[in-house]
Fold this protein.
Amino acid sequence: VQLQASGGGLVQTGGSLRLSCTSSEDTLDYHFIAWFRQAPGKEREGVSCISSNSDGYTAYSNSVKGRFTISQDKSRNMVYLQMDGLKPEDTAVYYCAADANIEVITTTPRYWGQGTQVTVSS
């Protein structure tokens, strides 16, 4: 399984960004995908995850609920994180991760992509 996150950048408070996670073929058919972030000096935080099942179950951390939206396009092997209403505290390196086990997808997923930096200026 190979993952690559992209789409980060510098944005002002209240702005939007869409992160993309490119996965290797068929990854989304068998794995759950999650987005994590890590700010300097802080612990890694799970942000959102999406199910590989047809129900498309999604979950969000309380810190981003109502502002971020996760989605997937299995035909393109892509998972997206639409981030609206960005705040300075959203500044972090964002990573996408994958695991076939829903029990660990939000804690210790097996596969990780390289991160993408998101910086929100005040």
The chain has a mean pLDDT of 94.
